[in-house]
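Notes taken during the Thursday session

The instructor put the following on the board and asked us to keep it in front of us for the whole hour. The protein is Sugar phosphate isomerase/epimerase. We were told not to look anything up and to reason only from what is written here. First, the residues (268 in total):
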Amino acid sequence: MQPHDQTGVKLPYDQVCEMVAGTGFDGMAIDLGASDVAVAHAVRPHMEANGLTPLIVAFPKTIESLEDTLHMAVDFGAPFVDVIGQVMPIALDDMIPVIETWMAMSDRIGMPIQFETHRNCITNDLYTTLQLLDRIPEMRICADLSHYVVDREFWFPLSDHDLGLISRVLKRSDSFQGRVASRQQIQLQLDFPQHQKWVDLFKSWWREGMADWRSRNASGDCIFVCELGPPEYAMTGPDGREMSNRWDEAQVIQHWVREIWADLGGNT
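Then, after some discussion, the predicted structure tokens were revealed:
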């Protein structure tokens, strides 16, 4: 939302929150990697005024620094903290105590955490993340599968083996993020004809993930974030302007996901 379209204009927080709520979204993610705690506190009253639930996205650079974010999330009333951990040991055996310490911290403070599938963090690589999931049964995932499509440079169509790897992630996922990627691009324009095979693939993954979520949860909210980043996530032309309108695309994804959820028998 900052900026929300090709003009590059950054709207005031009250207008952003009014736009988001007015289009039927239930909340917004506060990304502490793209902004900071001061921005979170500044936008909070406008979210509350518009009935928007805050989701906190954390990028802890030390094990200890996550604690302050968890306390802030409790105060904000966030459903969980989405952790993109910047503590990145090379060896799997060294990663495990990092994850377990953060999980213990989460339990002690009473704020759930999920580990986002994301590049340049402790879950950077699909294969390593699958090993972490095998070794830490309580580890829960926020699935942004765009990162792993680029990470593994999956050929299209994906093999049954590769589809199976993604299914293993989805079975441990308690929330989802919406961005469509290809094997070379992290964020595709949704309406370009050449991108439709990837759009269909991601819609099938979102359906699979939400269907599995429903099989594990008799009630509660399944959280799906329509996450479309500004340049250089968003592709630009020679004039530096974005090649699509992310605000419009976020609403397209919202519509798709609500349709899938309703088709699975859920209330939107």
